[in-house]
Amino acid sequence: MPLQDMATPGLRAPSYGLLAACCALVLGCAASRAGSNNRYMVSSARCEFYKNGPAQAFGPDAVLPKGQKVTMVAREFGFSQIRLEDNTVGYVATDELTQLPPETPTPKPIAARRRSAPPVPERGLDLSDTPAPLPQ
Question: What is the pTM of this model?
Answer without folding.
Answer: 0.52
